[in-house]
Amino acid sequence: MARWQPDAGERLRVAALDLFEERGFDQTSVAQIAQRAELTERTFYRHYADKREVLFQGQEQLNDALAAGVAEAPELGPLAVADEVLVRAASFFDDERRPFSRRRQQVIDANPELVERERAKMAHLTDAVAAGFRARGVPDVRAAVAAGTVVSAFQVTFELWVAPAETRDFTVLGRAVVGELRAALSADAAL
Amino acid sequence: MARWQPDAGERLRVAALDLFEERGFDQTSVAQIAQRAELTERTFYRHYADKREVLFQGQEQLNDALAAGVAEAPELGPLAVADEVLVRAASFFDDERRPFSRRRQQVIDANPELVERERAKMAHLTDAVAAGFRARGVPDVRAAVAAGTVVSAFQVTFELWVAPAETRDFTVLGRAVVGELRAALSADAAL
């Protein structure tokens, strides 16, 4: 970030979200975002590759953090790993971020292209988590199904966290989701 | 299917797959598919809504069958339900279908738009399975995470089944995948 434009990235993000809500994502241009933020397009592109990136920036850091959760989980059971992964995720999704995340989610849900982007992200996250299991010696197929379970727990937790009336924090929700998964599995007599 | 054009749907499907492989999905038109099958475009549209549908037709029947597996599973644990769902799926994925499914998968994997379509299908399947759990009295969050686990087992089984050198049938693979999930969960001391 250039010294003479403190918080330019943040101003652009706020301007973009406002415009996406007012006009729709497709009807908003980078020029309009820059104008609303009283910055230049050149400044925009110094912060974001395109207007979609305003919504998805930081995903790689999140993926890396969640993969680190797999690498450092004390046990390799999917529930133990889900617990660890959700604790890492909680540091990304704090209450300060929640209002932005909620508005962002509504913009995404209204736009099929963005929904697809979100699904692709989940698929990549699942691959990353499976790689994390494999790196710890878990065989391929086991790693793949375990990763599906872990990412499913993350996804359900995130959906609860951004839901309009939800006030519980991410860690509390994550613990509840893993508890529900445990309860579901307790119905599996054969386990 | 019109009586004077036996197997027109099948001929169109073969022609489409041949062309998708030869030229790529994007470079193939409905007119070319019809011509290759020695049928008219009108006949094509009597069988498929568009060229993409040639690859995705039958998905609703599959979803319905898998949802019925949730409705009729003897127990409500995710592993028991996955077992039941995979047995239903096996009737769709028999050895006669496998060569087509393999070629189809390669066409899909080569085209981002088709990959997205496939991901959307999995998301809808997850919703359908979750609805099946809820219909049997499983609370919302539990239904959502259990569905994620079940669909993950289906997805991994399907991926194995279409893999180039795989010869085991769908039922055998499904049983192996659920076994791997069970083995993974046995590492969860807290379960």
Task: Write down the CATH class of the largest domain in chain A.
Answer: Mainly Alpha
**CATH topology call of the largest domain in chain A:** Tetracycline Repressor, domain 2
What CATH architecture of the largest domain in chain A do you see?
Orthogonal Bundle
Termini Cα gap of chain A: 53 Å
Structural shape of chain A = elongated
Radius of gyration of chain A equals 19 Å
The beta-strand count of chain A equals 0
| Assembly form of the protein | homodimer
DNA-binding region (chains A, B): 29-48
Keywords (chains A, B): DNA-binding, Transcription, Transcription regulation
Domain HTH tetR-type (chains A, B): 6-66
Protein name (chains A, B): HTH tetR-type domain-containing protein
Layout of helices and strands:
Two copies of one chain form a homodimer.
Chain A: H1 8-23, H2 30-36, H3 41-47, H4 53-56, H5 59-72, H6 78-90, H7 98-109, H8 112-135, H9 140-162, H10 170-186
Commentary on this structure:
The structure is a homodimer of 191-residue chains. Chain A is an all-alpha fold and 191 residues long. Chain A folds into 2 domains: 8-54, Arc Repressor Mutant, subunit A, CATH 1.10.10; 58-186, Tetracycline Repressor, domain 2. Helix content of chain A is 72%, strand content 0%. Chain A has helices at residues 8-23, 30-36, 41-47, 53-56, 59-72, 78-90, 98-109, 112-135, 140-162, 170-186. Chains A, B: It comes from Luteimicrobium xylanilyticum.
